[in-house]
Amino acid sequence: MLMNPVEFFRTLPKKECPECGQHMVEQAESYLMECDRCLAKREE
Known about the structure:
Elements: H1 5-10, H2 36-43
């Protein structure tokens, strides 16, 4: 049975940073895996 595409995306779990576990606010065309805080630590 096929699911409505809108319902599919609505039911996806929130994206989680693999470093700290914080939920991330996703933006279109974003392929980042870590949250902004963890990315800032990495650049230091």
